[in-house]
Amino acid sequence: MENILSGVKPTGQLTLGNYIGALRNFPKYQNGEDHVFVFIADLHALTLPIEPETLYNNTRDIVAFYLACGLDPTKASIFLQSQVPAHSELATILGNYAYMGEMSRMTQFKEKSSKLNEKKIGLGLFTYPVLMAADIILYDAKKVPVGEDQKQHVELARDLVIRFNHQYKQDVFVLPEPVISTSGARIMSLSDPTKKMSKSDANGDIFLKDDPAVARKKIMRAVTDLGSEVKYDKENKPGISNLLVIYSSLKEISIEEAEKEFEGLRYGDFKKAVADVVCAKLEELQTKYKEVIESGIIDKVLEKGAKEASLIANETLKRVKKVIGLYGAK
Prior knowledge:
Elements (H helix, E strand, L loop, with lengths): L2 E6 L7 H6 L4 H5 L4 E6 L11 H17 L7 E5 L5 H9 L5 H5 L2 H7 L9 H15 L3 E5 L5 H18 L8 E3 L32 H9 L17 H14 L3 H7 L5 H29 L2 H27 L6
Parallel strand pairs: 1-2, 1-4, 2-3, 4-5
Helix pairs in contact: 3-12, 4-7, 4-13, 7-8, 9-12, 10-11, 10-12
């Protein structure tokens, strides 16, 4: 039996990219012998300015969509990062084993800090990867499903595990492995297919709460490419390639099979077919989302998940404290 961990940051509305790249895969892990820990990374959301009401509502929505996507709270532990204090405590400890140089080389830090006034770059943004490493390490997780853009953070967690275990000459932590979906792992913006669908582009993103009619318009207006052939060519046809990934992922077929379906058809016919599939999925998810919201079970699910997560996290924290010599650790 292995522990599997994944999480989502509540900094914006969930997108179709979040669903294809992560949410739809979670239920696949919960039906075996492995234990699944899925959390909302609400402490990570504080690394950039966010309104309290927005944070609260986004958090609730993520839990509701987790459940709507098939996560079963009797088989998986769903919880808030902030409700398990061990996350913050282990991050404080791990910060002493991370180096300034490797922190400053983290791609996401460089990208996000470049958009901020240098005097207003918060320490939390800089140390974000250390907290993420703590998130992973606490649960002895061997498998960590992540998007391609988060792989570097899991690699840092691996470096910290190796460094820590070597220093204390024992296997204190389990070495995690990133698990990246081979299909639909990175969905791009409809308005700029060279950029990831990232919760911030009202025209390029399809949100899971979008009215299907709105989503259809976005797809029909999506940026396409020169020529008329529906073919996967990420370099020369990024727009069509992105739509092919979306279509094949939701239909659960290969990109090659999708290409054959649209052989000889025009872009307009192809976009209509993509829109049909996307709208059908949105309607399905939104119906289940509404049922979850109206059921009033979110608080109970989170309370149960936090208790289950704390049992594992606190044991890991005790083990660490004992190894490094903190007084009173048993």
